[in-house]
Structure formats: C-alpha cells, structure tokens
DNA sequence: TGTCATTGGAAACAATTGTTTGAATATGCC
DNA sequence: GGCATATTCAAACAATTGTTTCCAATGACA
C-alpha cells in the first residue's frame, strides 16, 4: 500500500481542489482538513493562517512556472540571437510553459481556476502577493511582446494583452461548465490541448487587428 | 431634502455595490443593512434569503437589458428585412444594449463586475437562475451570429463567442484595477466608451480569424 | 376612532467560521 | 535509553454568519 504523502502535501492537494471548485471564502478549513484526513489545527500549525495557505497553494504552481518560463524565454532569446522574436513564437512559448507545469500533477484545470479566482475574488492580499512575487516574469514577457509588435501604440498593446488574458483565463477557468454545454450541443469532447489549438489563431488575429478609429474629438476642440 | 428611496431600493442599491466590490460570500447582510441604514431583518423580510437578494440584484439589471436587447434585435431584423445581418451590426447592437441599461444608474462597472462574479463565483444557484431566466435572448443572439458567419463550424463559433465573452467580462469587470495600471504607465485616462472602441476591431478580428489547424490524428488511427 | 395588515426594529437563535490552547504522541539525535 | 524537538489531536475560544422571533410603530380603510 502506497505510503500517504505527508500532512503538508495532503493539505495542499486537498485545498487546491476545493479552492478551485468553490472559491476561497466558500471553502472552510474544516472542509479541507476533514477531506485531507488531518487535524484541523494542522493548517494553522504548518502554514500559520488561511491566507498563508492560499498563498502557498499558488506558490506551488507559480514557482515552477516562473522558473520554466524564464528558462524558455532564455532559450528563445538565444535562438534568435538578438533578432526580434516574432509574436507567434512568444505566444507559443507562453502556452507551452503554462501547459507544462501542472502536467506533472495533471491539474491544468485547477491551475487556471486558481488564476481566475485570483483576479475575480476579493482577496486583495492575493493580488498583491502575486504581483510582488511573480510580476517580474510578466514584465519581461510584455517587453518582448513590445519588440515583436512595434507598430502597436503602447496603450493599445497593453489593452490587447489584457483582452487576451481575459480570454484565456475566462475560458480555461470556466472550462468545466463550458465543456458541458459544448458536449451537449455538439457532442464532441473538448480537451485542453484542443482549446489551446483553437485559441492560437484567435489570439494572433486579435493582437494583429487593425487599430480602432481614433477616439472622437471633444466638441469644444473644434 | 430629497426623500429617501424605500427600503427595498436602498437594500438593492447598497447590495449591488458591495457585491461588486467584494463578492457574495465576502459581503454579509450586516454589511449591507448597516450601510443602507435599514434593519438587519429587512433583507429576510423583503427578499426571503440572501440567495434571493442576490438574484434580485441581477434581475434589476438583466430584466431591462433583455427587454432592450430583444427590442434592438427586432429593429435590426426589420431593417435587414430577411437579409443576413452582418456580424459587425450584431456586435454593435449588443454593445449598445449593454451600455444603455446601466447608464440610467451610472454603474456599468457594477453590472460587469456582477456578470464576472456570476461566472467565477461558486454560487451554482446563480448560474442556473440566469440560464433559466435569461437564456432565451442569448440563444436568439447566437442564432443570428450563426447566420452571419456561415463559414464557421458550429463548435468553432461556440468557442469563439465564449472567448470574446471572456475578453469583455474580464476586462470590464476588472476595469478599475486595469485602469489604475494603464493610467500609471501611459498617463491617459480610459473611459468605458474608449474601451469599447478598442474592443470592437479586436472582437471582429478574433471572430474572423483563420480556422485552427485540424486537431492531430491519434497515432493508432494511422 | 378603532381595526387590521404591513413594515420597522431590537434581540436572540443556532450554526459555522478561523484561531488558539495544552496535553499526548511521535520523531530524531546523542 | 533518554532527552529535546516536532507533530498530532481534541477541545475550547471568540467572532461572525444567516435567520427567526416577538413586539412596536405605521398607515389605510371602515
């Protein structure tokens, strides 16, 4: 019989699933500890508080992600040896990095749900934590995107990147619900890789869309 | 001195703001009633339960929205008199309907935040309620989109519509945070209308993106 | 004016929350 | 073995939650 993982791991494994399913506020420590078969006090003993547990759940995904993503960007920059990295390659690399990390634990869905929650749930401490802890890798990425899309005004690129962030997080974090509808309506089962395949041309087209009409000039300015 | 709106209205006005700011579970009835200056029991008296209050908050936005959106689609169909309505016109109409409704209460932000929460928060009852109560108008809209984009496979259109739903909800519901960043980085203040202007070409380009590569064939199928 | 249904309000309810305590147990090290 | 440290455990804690109860105030209608 396989040995049970230690208490800390059991808590994290259970917590991430419950958090992803129902959100942070809706998941009680008793929920977690009873399902993980550990004592209630174990959470506060090992993590200190519920907040700290939430951050630890994120760290277990984001730490390996940032390491890999940085490494992949290093490779990419080496490959292109100073030349501009095309947008498609950047997006491809990001997608690969996102897909790789949770593959070890077979829980991309959880990963994406957590990202979605980090944005939508109140939990101000979480956004701050993520920004401070993992902001640098995103800064690096957006700078590379800037070089790849020199014709885009800075503000326009900023917004389009966030548009696409919304697309991806929204879709993948609500995947279960959407998959149910899609399966009912079109019969076909949709895998995550399938979805990423469908996302690629959409994201590229969105980033390369023509510029919007200039904002209308105020009346008083003639 | 202007007469205070009645209890029911005060509760709804306060609840929608607090819900939008912090989510449903994180907003207690005491939070709402104290800020609205009504008695705690008033919520259960007038609405029956917290769940019912949440649904009532949504109904106050979605009821007028569906009415207007149906009406706008009626006009549009009349204008085109049986001919196919182009995608741009459909998107334009939808955007206009969304913008019109909360303009009365000057709270598009709240409307969008609520929509975002409806998707991301657990609250299974909410999704079910919205689907049952307001599903028909979306069915009508997607059917018109189908006619406007005959070259798209059904599944592909389904997914792209949800991609764009994600873009819009994610962007507009996280608007405050994003606006802060954008203003800090680019100095310019961004209005909602500005954002809609920027969204238009992106959404159109995304819907018209080339089809993805066909999904790779499984090994055993030669 | 008196009656009755509606609304407002203070208090209490039972349940659940995150956290802490202090003793019991296990573990590692000399 | 024996000590010290680390972990587990049951119990209790104080705070907060949604909901209910019971009574007072209100206002419409006869």
UniProtKB/TrEMBL annotation, chains A, B:
Pfam family of the protein (one): TetR_N
Bilayer-spanning residue ranges: none
DNA-binding region range list: 28-47
Protein name: AcrR family transcriptional regulator
Domain of life: Bacteria
GO MF assignments: DNA-binding transcription factor activity; transcription cis-regulatory region binding
Keywords from the UniProt entry: DNA-binding
PROSITE patterns, alphabetized: HTH_TETR_1, HTH_TETR_2
Residue ranges of domain HTH tetR-type in the record: 5-65
């Amino acid at each position: 019989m396989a040995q049970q993982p230690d208490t800390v791991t059991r808590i994290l494994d259970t917590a991430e699933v419950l958090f992803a399913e129902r959100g942070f506020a809706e998941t009680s420590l008793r929920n977690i500890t009873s399902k993980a078969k550990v004592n209630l006090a174990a959470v506060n003993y090992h993590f200190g508080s519920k907040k700290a547990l939430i951050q630890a759940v994120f760290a277990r995904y984001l730490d390996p992600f940032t390491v890999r993503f940085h490494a992949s960007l290093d490779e990419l920059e080496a490959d292109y040896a100073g030349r501009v990295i095309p947008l498609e390659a950047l997006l491809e690399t990001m997608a690969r990095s996102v897909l790789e990390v949770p593959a070890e634990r077979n829980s991309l869905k959880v990963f994406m749900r957590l990202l979605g929650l980090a944005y939508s749930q109140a939990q101000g401490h979480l956004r701050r934590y993520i920004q401070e802890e993992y902001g640098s890798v995103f800064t690096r990425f957006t700078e590379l995107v800037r070089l790849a899309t020199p014709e885009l005004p800075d503000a326009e690129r900023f917004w389009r990147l966030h548009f696409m962030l919304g697309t991806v997080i929204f879709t993948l974090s609500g995947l279960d619900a959407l998959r149910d509808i899609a399966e009912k309506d079109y019969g076909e089962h949709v895998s995550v890789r399938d979805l990423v395949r469908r996302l690629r041309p959409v994201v590229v087209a969105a980033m390369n869309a023509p510029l919007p009409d200039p904002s209308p000039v105020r009346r008083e300015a003639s």
